Input
Amino acid sequence: MAQLLLPFLTDNASKPSVEVGAPSTRAPRGERDCVENAEVEPRCDGDLRSARLRLERAPHDALTERQRLSARARELTATIGAELGRPVRLKITDNKRVLLSQKRLMDAVEIRAHHVFLRAGADVQRAVARFLRDRDASASAVLDAFLEAESDYLRSARARRPSRLNPRGKVHDLDLILRDVITRHFDRPIDTPRIGWGRASSGKNGRKRSIQLGVYDREEALIRIHRALDREWVPAFYVGFIVYHELLHHLIPPIERAGRLDVHTPEFRRLERKYHYYAEAVAFERANLNRLLAR
Output
C-alpha cells in the first residue's frame, strides 16, 4: 500500500496512495481551509482514553464542526506520537494524490494526512500510527478497508474547483512555451500539467534578496511562473528554462534522504542540463539576476 505515485503516468483512474516519506513539494492549499496544525509530545494510553471520552461525551450541539475536527486532529496526533515515541506535527491536507505521508525532522516527525482520517475511529487511528511506524501489514489492511468504506467521501472531496490560470501574458504565452519544451525534450507522450502566470505582485517596489521564478503544485498538477518574466527583455528561451525546470518537478517525485526531502535529485539535475538552451539560460540568469530581483 505504501507506494510512490509517479505523476507522468496517465492512468487518472488509479486510487490515491498512502505514501511514506515523500510528501508533495508544496503545501496543499487545503491545509489553510481545514484544521490548524496540532503538535504534542508522546502521551500515555490513559491520556488518549481521557481525550476520547471527553469527545464522545460532549453534546453534538455543544461543539462547532471546527472544534470537533480540531479535537479529532489532536487525538490523531497523540495516537501517532505515542506509537512513534517522538513529538508529532500534524498537517491536515486536501491532497488528493497522497493521503498520508511523513517526514522526519530534527526535533519531530511531520505527518501530512488527508482530512478523511479525521473521520476515523480509534482502531483506524492506531492503524495509521502502526503503518507510519513500520508499514505494518495488518495496519495496511485496516487502512485499505477504511478508505474503501470512505470512497464516496473521497470522491466528493475531489470535486473541488481547480485554480484559475491565465497562461497568456503581455509578452509570453506559457501554453506555447510549454508545448515547445515538451516537443523538444520528450519523444513520448507525457501527462501535461496546467500552467499559468502567478498573481500580480502587491506593488511594493525595491530590490529583493531572492525570487521564486516558478513553482510546481503537485496537488493540482499545475505550474505557476512569476510575472517578472513576462517582460520584453526576458527571452523566450529563459522562460522556457524555468518552465522546463518546473515540468521536471511534475515528472520526478521528491525522494527522502536521511529524513530530508530531496526535490533536486541527481537524476533531476542530469535532466535539467539537457535543456536545449541550458548554457544560454544559465548565462542570462547570471547576467540579469539583479535586474530580476529588482522586478
